[in-house]
Design brief:
The structure holds two protein chains of two kinds.
Chain A: E1 9-13, H1 21-31, E2 36-41, H2 44-56, E3 63-65, H3 71-85, E4 90-93, H4 109-137, E5 140-145, H5 159-179, E6 184-191, H6 204-211, H7 223-234, E7 245-248
Parallel strand pairs in A: 1-2, 1-4, 2-3, 4-5, 5-6, 6-7
Helix pairs in contact in A: 1-2, 1-7, 3-4, 4-5
Chain B: E1 9-13, H1 21-31, E2 36-41, H2 44-56, E3 63-65, H3 71-85, E4 90-93, H4 111-139, E5 142-147, H5 160-180, E6 185-192, H6 199-203, H7 212-223, H8 234-245, E7 256-259
Parallel strand pairs in B: 1-2, 1-4, 2-3, 4-5, 5-6, 6-7
Helix pairs in contact in B: 1-2, 1-8, 3-4, 4-5
Classes of the chains: A alpha/beta, B alpha/beta.
Chain lengths: 255, 265
C-alpha cells in the first residue's frame, strides 16, 4: 500500500537508542518513501548510528544533537533541519524517559518536575518550533508517543511518568483542535511494555515476558509494532484522523 | 508497505450499498492483496454488483444474501463463505443502519424501535462474529473490525437509540478483544463521523434530499464542529478498516478509533 510519504521530510526525536522506538520509526519512514529523515538525540554518537542506517536505505539524513528539554537546543535543532531540507512534513516525538521512579508522595516538586519537563514540555517545545513551517505549507503530521502507563495503575514506573504521559494525550488533542484549520494533524501512539531502555536491567525481554502474563495477547510490544502504528498516523492513510490516542498494547488497555 | 494480505480470506457485511463503507472496504482489501473477499448484504442484487467489482480487481469473490438479524441466515452465510474458501481470516462488520427518524426523543419512540435498532446493529454484529469465531480459533489467527459511530460522543446528532446501539459495539469490541486475545484473534472498532452514504436517505424515510442550497447550508453549519473542515469519505473509513485488518497492526486490539476529522477526540 502506498502511504503517500514520497518526497516527505520527517524529523524523529529520541532516535539514538539502537533498541528504541525512535530508530525503528526513522528506518520505517525511510523505507516507506520519505525523502529525508532527520534524527535527533541527546547522545549524538548514537543518533549518528541511526543516520548511517537511514543512508544505507538510500535516503537523506542528518543527525543533530539536542537536549529537547532545553528551548534553545530545540530552536537550533528545528532551524538546522529546516535549513537543510527547507521543510518538515512529519514530526515524530519519541524522546522521553522515566525520570523518576519515586512514588509522588515520597518525592518533591523538583522530582515531579523532571518527568513533566522530559516527557511533556519537550514535546510542546518541538511542536512549537515546528508549527510555523507546517502552517506555511498548510500541511503536517505530528505523532506523539504516549504510554499505556496512563491506564495501568500498578506499573511501577513512578506516578509522575504516567502523569506526564497523560499530559501528552491531552496536549495531542488540544494541538489537533488548534491546528486542524492549518491542515496539521496530531495523534498519539501509546505503547505497552517493550524491550527498550525503559526496562531496567540486562535481560529486557525476560522482564517484558513477565509483564506480558497479564496481557490478553500474551506478549509484549515490539519496536516494529510501535513503528507501524506511528507510520500509519504520519501517512496520508489517516488524513481524516486527528486527536486520537491509539493504544498498541495487545489488549492490556481497553479503555 | 506490505500489509500481509497475501492468501487471506475476508468477509465484509453490509457491502451492498454502492456508496457505502462496506463496498469501499471490500475493494481495498482486494486491491491490497487478499486472495478472496466474500461480500454479504440483505440485498443480494446490490451485493452482487460489489462482488463483480471485486472480481474485476483480480480477486475471488462471492456475493451472499443474508439478513444479519436472523441467526439461521447468518450461520448459512458464514458456512457458505467457509465452504467456498476453507477459512475466514478477516471479518469486517459493516452492516448497520439508523432505524428511527432523526431527532425523535428516546421516550417518544416505540419499544419496537429500540429493540429493532439493537437487533440490527448490536445483535446482528454479534451473530456474525459468533459464527466466524470458531474458524478463527481453529487457525489461532484472525482480525475483526467493527464499524462503530462518532454519534456515541455527539449528543446533538439526534440519533440517540442508534448511538446507544453503536456504543454497545464499542464495548462488544473490547470484551471480544479481551476474551480472544489468547486465541490470536484481534478485534478493533472504527467510529466514522458523518459521510455521504445512504444513511441520510434512511433518515429521510424515502423523502427526496433537500435542495442543494439548503443541503450546503446544513453541511456548513455542521462543519463548524469538524476541525479538519470536511466530511468523511468512504475512502477515509476503508483505509483505516483495512489497516486494522492487516498484519501491520497485529499488536493492536480492543481499540476504538474515531475517524471524524477531529470532531470526536
Amino acid at each position: 500500500m502506498d502511504l503517500g510519504l514520497k518526497g516527505k521530510v520527517a524529523l524523529v526525536t529520541g532516535a539514538g537508542s539502537q533498541i528504541g522506538f525512535g530508530k525503528q520509526i526513522a528506518l520505517l519512514l525511510a523505507k516507506e518513501g520519505c525523502d529525508a529523515v532527520a534524527v535527533t538525540d541527546i547522545n549524538l554518537d548514537d543518533a549518528k548510528l541511526t543516520m548511517e542506517e537511514i543512508k544505507k536505505i538510500g535516503k537523506k539524513s542528518i543527525a543533530v544533537k539536542a537536549d529537547i528539554t532545553n528551548p534553545a537546543d530545540v530552536a537550533i535543532l528545528i532551524k538546522k533541519v529546516v535549513d537543510e531540507y527547507k521543510r518538515i512534513d512529519v514530526l515524530c516525538n519519541v524522546a522521553g524517559g522515566i525520570a523518576s521512579r519515586v512514588p509522588y508522595d515520597q518525592g518533591k516538586p523538583e522530582d515531579w518536575d523532571k518527568d513533566i519537563r522530559l516527557n511533556l514540555y519537550s514535546i510542546m517545545l518541538t511542536c512549537q518550533s515546528v508549527l510555523p513551517n507546517m502552517r506555511e505549507k498548510k500541511a503536517g503530521a505530528i505523532v506523539n508517543i504516549g504510554s499505556g502507563s496512563t491506564r495501568m495503575y500498578s506499573h511501577g514506573t513512578g506516578n509522575t511518568y504516567a502523569i506526564s504521559k497523560a499530559g501528552v494525550d491531552t496536549f495531542t488533542k488540544q494541538l489537533a483542535f488548534n491546528e486542524a484549520k492549518n491542515g496539521i494533524r496530531c495523534n498519539c501512539v501509546a505503547p505497552g511494555p517493550a524491550p527498550t531502555n525503559f526496562i531496567p536491567g540486562p535481560d529486557k525481554q525476560a522482564m517484558v515476558n513477565m509483564l506480558a502474563k497479564t496481557i490478553p495477547m500474551g506478549r509484549g510490544a515490539t519496536q516494529t509494532d510501535i513503528a507501524n502504528a506511528t507510520i500509519f498516523f504520519a501517512s496520508d492513510l489517516s488524513s481524516y484522523v486527528t486527536g486520537a490516542v491509539l493504544h498498541v498494547s495487545g489488549g492490556s488497555v481497553l479503555d | 508497505m506490505d500489509l500481509g494480505f497475501k492468501g487471506k480470506i475476508a468477509l465484509v457485511t453490509g457491502a451492498g450499498s454502492q456508496v457505502g463503507f462496506g463496498k469501499e472496504t471490500a475493494l481495498l482489501l482486494a486491491k491490497e492483496g487478499c486472495e478472496a473477499v466474500a461480500v454479504t448484504d440483505v440485498n443480494l442484487e446490490d451485493v452482487k454488483k460489489t462482488a463483480e467489482a471485486v472480481k474485476k480487481l483480480g480477486c475471488k469473490s462471492i456475493a451472499i444474501g443474508a439478513d444479519i438479524t436472523k441467526k439461521t441466515e447468518v450461520d448459512a452465510m458464514v458456512k457458505r463463505a467457509v465452504d467456498e474458501y476453507g477459512k475466514i481470516d478477516i471479518l469486517c462488520n459493516v452492516a448497520g443502519a439508523i432505524l428511527h427518524k432523526d431527532y425523535v426523543p428516546l421516550d417518544e419512540q416505540k419499544y419496537e424501535t429500540w429493540s429493532k435498532q439493537i437487533d440490527l446493529n448490536l445483535f446482528g454484529t454479534m451473530y456474525v462474529t459468533r459464527a466466524v469465531i470458531p474458524h478463527m480459533r481453529k487457525q489461532k489467527h484472525g482480525a475483526i473490525v467493527n464499524i462503530g459511530s462518532g454519534s456515541t460522543h455527539q449528543y446533538s446528532m439526534g440519533v440517540g437509540m442508534y448511538a446507544i446501539s453503536k456504543y454497545a459495539i464499542d464495548l462488544f469490541t473490547k470484551q471480544l478483544a479481551y476474551q480472544e486475545g489468547k486465541n490470536g484473534i484481534r478485534c478493533n472498532c472504527i467510529a466514522p463521523g458523518p459521510a455521504p452514504t445512504n444513511f441520510g436517505a434512511v433518515l429521510r424515510e424515502g423523502a427526496p434530499p433537500p435542495p442543494p442550497e439548503q443541503m450546503k447550508k446544513m453541511r456548513d453549519a455542521m462543519l463548524v464542529a469538524f476541525p479538519l473542515g470536511r466530511m468523511g469519505t468512504a475512502t477515509d473509513i476503508a483505509n483505516i478498516t483495512v489497516i486494522m485488518a492487516s498484519e501491520a497492526t497485529n499488536y493492536i486490539t480492543g481499540q476504538v478509533i474515531q475517524v471524524s476529522g477531529g470532531n470526536v477526540m
